[in-house]
User: Fold these one by one.
Assistant:
Number 1:
Amino acid sequence: MHGNWKNMLPLRSYFIGILVVFMLFIMGFCIKYIDLMFQPKPTDCSLKAVEKSIELAHCERKLLINTGNGRKMALNVLTPWLAPIIWDGTFDINILDNQHNSTRIGLFVFAVKKYIRFLLPLLESAERYFMIGHNVTYYVFTDKVKEVVKPKMADGHTLQLHDVVADERWQDVSMRRMEILTVFTKEHMANEIDYLVCADVDMVFNDHVGVEILGDLVATIHPVFFLSEKGAFPYERRPISTAYIPHGHGDFYYMAALYGGKVDEIYKLSMACRKGIVEDKKKNIEAVWQEESHLNRYLVYNKPTKVLSPEYLWDSRFGNGQLIKKKRFLVVSKNNDKVRY
Ligand code: 5GW
Ligand code: MN
């Protein structure tokens, strides 16, 4: 037993040897991966964190809405048929501008009777914010061609003035736009432009509106109804009208003050709406919101390929403005006594 401890010596140095090798191995590992040890904490990839970051990146508007009332479909960035809904932050304008460097764009505006007063402010604001750097043709239809004051226009922008008759009834004035569209999209615009944007004249551009709004068939969500339940949309509900939309049908309520698309798509749209208006007239009826009702009916069964958020149609009198970061195209307030008749 006494002589045994001497026999243990080689065993002890054997263990120390292994320990040293092991420690050297650990040290080597540490030196190799030293940068890993001092890196900041890796990103939190838990589902909850990812969900939150997606929501922040693409749809901050959602966070601004408290839970409960309000239908949030319009706040998404995709429709259920996978068309983009254009909100600030969803597009890179430099990429899109490059894609559209040889695109020819038309802006269709109708201004008869007293509404001629809205034309110059609209065109001047367009020169500041609408399709900057692109080839633009303004198609203006008016009964007062001689009174039109031309705005100062950038290179590559042209103004075409066309004479139209002014209808007696205001309801007919706005519906007449559809008829003019059918004629011009077929006969003239087809060779002159690639995309047509149709706008009300009682509007001003107030922030960037560019090629991100171009698409085969594009419509804008009505700023009053973007959080409304479907059942509250003011669609035409009388089956006797050609603009009839049954309950349960439809996705958004679109406003007729801004829509557009490829010239042939606008031709098809305006033909369908005009046909509906004429058929209703034969039965002595008129859709509840005139051509806007027919536009909505068309778009329920011919889904737009791109939808514009209320950033592209806003009225400072409307609620929920805190959800709209950029108010790009604004309704001009009308003193009805002066402008209407
Ligand atoms: C006039 C009185 C009542 C309603 C419309 C008019 C009117 C409309 C007019 O006298 N002259 C005219 O050119 N318009 C065209 O129709 C304008 O392009 C106008 O933007 C469009 C739609 O009419 P709005 O703007 O009065 O319709 P809301 O729904 O935007 O008020
Ligand atoms: Mn208007």
Note: Residues 272 and 296 are 11 Å apart (CA to CA).
Number 2:
Amino acid sequence: MIDISIVVPLYNEEQVFSQLAKRLTDVMDSVPFSCEVVMVNDGSSDKTADLLEDLCHKDTRFTGVLLSRNHGHQLAVTAGLAHTRGRQGVMVIDGDLQDPPELVTEFHNLLMRGYDVIYAVRKNRKESVIKRFAYWIYYRLQKKISNFNIPIDSGDFSMLSRRVVDHMNDMPEQSRYLRGMRSWIGFKQTGYEYNRDERQAGETKYSWKKLFELAFNGIFNFSDFPVRVITRLGFFTILLSLLYLCYIIVRKVVFDDVPQGFTATLMAIILFSGVQLISLGLIGEYVLRIYNQVRNRPLFIVDKLLQEGKEIKKQNSTL
Ligand code: UDP
Ligand code: MG
């Protein structure tokens, strides 16, 4: 019987792999409950998959989920969660050891005290100033505009109870923002402050493009603000133009000197075509999301599943 599963997504992590395997093995050897590790190879192009297969054959506490291609971090974690067997709960960590796996003991204690979600809150970050600033702004913006409370400065590093994982597995949304889904599920949640370590080896696998995609998912999936803002902007514009109309009429009647303002007209056209384009873009964002959802594709495709040192054949890969 497995109590706790640890999910680790991996994308081109050959450099940190042996260190990661060692830390996780030590943790599993030392904790008083039984653990498994579910590692997801997210279509790496380096030796990560081979290393993972070797490890799964050597130590049966490791499960390997090898995806058919790179699906992105959030879907890799989703695939991992779908293959966990821990009956008490699941911890999610990054593969680069920025999230210390040793915290499983503290998280497990909180889980036993009745919390369903224990999310790690970063006390510090070791990234560049620009990235830290971008994160700072983003988390605060997200908190302001999201429909419900998503905690500030907490990423995917967390422990989830079995029922939360089951609920998450039941959520079919395609563009996944796990930390938002986690908050949405509810139950008793608590934060746990920790110092985020530096990446132990290799480079970040989150390009700016991927980061922006994640940020957009966070905003569009968990907030009505962008659409609402269009309506408000529309009202504001109408109000402004009515006021301007009144002003012109007064000038016309009182002073009879309305200037034939070409500049003002041009300005108005440019300004409001900009507003219209942005508004169309915002609506397009939602339409795109609806389109992605109704296609109803599986969230990820598994190429190979290694469990208990054996390869398990799978019929299909939907959740
Ligand atoms: N990752 C993944 N698929 C991707 C990108 C990243 O599975 O397409 C994994 C990566 O291997 C790591 C975790 O997600 O285990 C976090 O990525 P990274 O450390 O590069 O992000 P950062 O900490 O720089 O935000
Ligand atoms: Mg990292």
Note: The beta strands are 4-10, 35-41, 62-67, 89-92, 117-124, 154-161, 189-195, 302-307, 310-312.
